[in-house]
Sequence to fold (166 residues):
Amino acid sequence: MKMNVNGISELVVEVESMDKAIEFWHQKLGFPIVDQWGYTDGGSATVDKSSIWATWLYVGGNTRLGLWLPRRFNEQEQVEKQKAISSWSNLFDEGGVHVHFALHVAIENVGEVLHVLQTEDIDYKVIVEEMDSQREYRIYFKDTEKNIIELYTRNMVETYKGVVIK
Fold:
């Protein structure tokens, strides 16, 4: 394997009804809800639970499942979305017909992963964040079908240890 990844970090599926999706995934199948958020009218992310746009469920190991409602893009956003690597600060905000999935990469393998992307001449974008006094990397690129692939260093096992939102 050229890239040393540890499996799926997160997988996002588009849903038409958040209530029905939560009933199925959380209530019927029993996956715990670990995070939820929405969008304000201005497009900024919010944790306002009255306008849930995205729900995250912990599905075991290092993996979480995102349930996202369709996101309607204006013309300017559509142009930005079509770029090889969007200049949006958070590429995971793309939605609609396609959302994204993330593969977990150990932080010590970030350099190796970047080397592979560079060697293979694949356009990519790196976002570095400080979360809970730890550095996290999100590396985004698009496949041949323009699906967004994220390589993510967040350890979901540690992040969601003992966390359940009811």
Q: What stands out?
A: The two ends are 40 Å apart (CA to CA). The helical segments are 18-28, 75-81, 110-119, 156-159. Residues 40 and 158 are 29 Å apart (CA to CA).
